[in-house]
Amino acid sequence: MTNFRFFTAAGLFFGLLLCFSALLWNLQVVNGAAYYERSQQAIARTETVPAARGKLLDRTGKILAQDMVSWVIQVSGDCPEPDLQRLEALCREEGVDWSGAGDIADPTPELLVRVRSEDLTRVTIGSAVTRQGSGDLAPHIIGRVGKMTPDQWEDYRDQGYPMDAMVGQDGAEAAFEALLHGTDGTKVIHTDRQGEVTGEGYGVQPKPGQDVTLTLDRDLQETLQTALGDYLAAHGCPGGAGVMLDVTDGGVLAMASLPGYDTATFSADYARLTADPAAPLMNRAIQGLYAPGSTFKLVTAAAALEEGVLTPETRILDTGRYTYYPSPQPQCWLYRQEGRTHGLETLTEALTDSCNIFFYDAGRRVGIDTLGTWAEQLGLGMSTGVELAGEKTGVVAGPDYTRSVGGTWYEGSVLSAAIGQENNRFTPLQLAHMTATLVGDGNRWQVHLLKKVGGEDYTPVSLGKVDIAPENLTAIKEGMLGVTQTGSLASAFRDLPVRAGAKTGSAQVAADRASNAVLVAFAPYEDPQVALALVAQEGGSGSALGEVAAAILKTYFEKI
Ligand SMILES: [Zn+2]
Predict the structure, then answer these.
(1) Cα 167 to ligand 1 centroid, rounded to whole Å
(2) Which of 41-50, 390-399, 437-446 has the least mean pLDDT?
(3) How far apart are the CA of 123 and the centre of ligand 1, in A?
(4) What is the rounded CA–CA span in Å between residue 346 and residue 313?
(5) Gap from CA of 334 to ligand 1 centroid (Å)
(6) 49: buried, middle or exposed (CB in 10 Å: 19+, 13-18, 0-12)?
(7) What's the pLDDT tens digit per position in 147-162?
(8) pTM here?
(9) Ligand 1 centroid – CA 419 distance (Å)
């Protein structure tokens, strides 16, 4: 009986064992792959892998802005208490400040190594990408990247951007967003049922953005910012701007707007920057509108010569006071200051001396409508085409504009318009562009910052050619040469390695404030390569800006 019971029990036991084994076999071998697959699907997740943003480079390949990868220790909310305490101890020992919860940004390399070796539960090491710009170098031109605003999301959503994407907010970062921004990829992360990562792989490989080379030159930019900044500080000016263009293709070699700001601390400084009455966020080079003063005499000169009103040989007598109209009867600056006159002068001499009477007479003979046409032909009062957002077009003085703002235009208003007063208002970029077009044999190039995308050169765009007879252009250029050789800039330009031409201006803005100082220049005289415009608000005389112009021209010619 005992034996029977024993065998029955043993039989049952083996039977059960067999059944269990069969079940296990079924589970693990027959259906194992399917079960495994199902379990993995349940706990695999997909993450977006942001594409690396392309670099911004200067014309010589120096980095202006690039992505920087920094490490972060990610601490999950359900990290077990003993692991949290161990992590706190490690932070203490490595001198890293951590509150005891949340991620640890920018850990020291030593802490990273120790955390990795300790294999703490629910603690992982990840990376974060930040954009490193050039600080206070050309902040308005290089720009910033940042999180999208709701309005930007409306536009970018259709282009496939995730909601938390970083996009260019201003400057070149915004202008070339489509080139710099790559296409995000996806990563599939597998975890076991305890949440530990068991493997990962790319779903879609991210496609990095393209490197964008700008026409900007880092060294010229530094020289311009430093020299102009020193000038503004020394003269107590509230702001100023400067632009240097490549005469041969319209490329921007340097563009500064002062005061500026630091892109690295922009967020922290934002409240102070927006409240600052000096408007440091405004890019004065493309958004500041300034009366050109006597630099506009270049336009009047070109119009008078090309319209046949004068020849390079025509002489006009400076009478001190211009009495053609009963009113107004404005004076030459020399007569007003010293009671003297410039006498009988040619256009070249009158440009060098900046004789007002000569250009009152030239402007009157050309007439306001034709004068306005010439200003526009030379690019004033319209967009230069530069890729930066927010460019102002300015105003060419004339009856139409005056009436549009409720004013009255008088016949004699042409006199002040001809010497760059009246309602003439232009950006420093437009003044540089006008100078470049004029001295570049009338070839007008669309202003641009883009030099190269990846390895491919950008093709400059011609905006046409302004017809200027060679002998007329020579008369104008010789007048500008006189300014730097014997005129008001002779001392500042004495040590330049090449000869340059220039014209200065001083434009009254308000009775109780000093005039704005304006200067335009080009070099070399024989074969113009670069054109320059400088404006110093309340800087007084344009000739005082000679040292700033000479500094940047010197840097340019030492480099090439
Ligand atoms: Zn005069």
Answers:
(1) 54
(2) 41-50
(3) 80
(4) 6
(5) 6
(6) middle
(7) 998 889 988 988 888 8
(8) 0.86
(9) 12
